[in-house]
Amino acid sequence: MDLHLRDKVVVVTGGATGIGKAAAAEFAREGARVIICGRRMEKLREACAQLQSEGLDLEAYQLDVCDKAAMQAMADAIVEKYECIDVWVNNAGIAISKPVMDFTDEDYEKIMQTNLKSVFEGCRIAGAQMQKQQGGVIINASSFATKIPQTNGTLYAASKAAVNSMTRTFSANFAPFGIRVVGYIPGMIITDIATDDIKKNENLYVANVAAHRLGVPADLAKPIVFLASDACGYVTGCEFEASGGKYVVQNASEPWDAV
Prior knowledge:
Blueprint: E1 9-13, H1 18-29, E2 33-38, H2 41-53, E3 58-62, H3 68-82, E4 87-90, H4 105-133, E5 136-141, H5 154-174, E6 179-186, H6 195-207, H7 218-228, E7 239-242, H8 254-257
Parallel strand pairs: 1-2, 1-4, 2-3, 4-5, 5-6, 6-7
């Protein structure tokens, strides 16, 4: 299927690793002009080198998504060069796992700034340009923790639940301008952010997934690109889940034991 994304201008925050990197690569394969950003220059260089070795091209900006001015400057530079922003993926995020009484004020600020405020500002920065051009798609990273939070993930789950709410309100506010706002919910995906949890609990996680395996970033990449396309033109204000059937039943491993 031709998703008609050739020459579309796509921004992916946190695009140097994990799901963001996989999505950026998939957009590039569809012929989009892809811009990624992240805090670590070495990771940005690695991502660019890897995709260029596949014959793909992308641009990278080193910035912290918590820095509103830097985000705006990146958007301004992109618009100056390409005259538009067609897709903006608010993918950057962090997780801190602790017993609820061990969280510090610094933990709270770090999670809320990265997971929530950066999405709020990203939506507004992208939305301001998309209103001028009368169209565009904003895609926000949600989490399975918005459905079933983890005991030690109080702040992470709260930040992502708030993102879901913003996806809905932004979708309604931006709809008159032809802008869609959607979210995506990953299951347990093998990325840097989940490494520690997976090491401790991999067997437990797999047992609760109908597909009987953990996900990889590529499992999210194609759905994210699909959500950005006109094929999903009537989809807005909701979240798409790609979790392998996590917790669809209470005994997901039982059918596998019988095979």
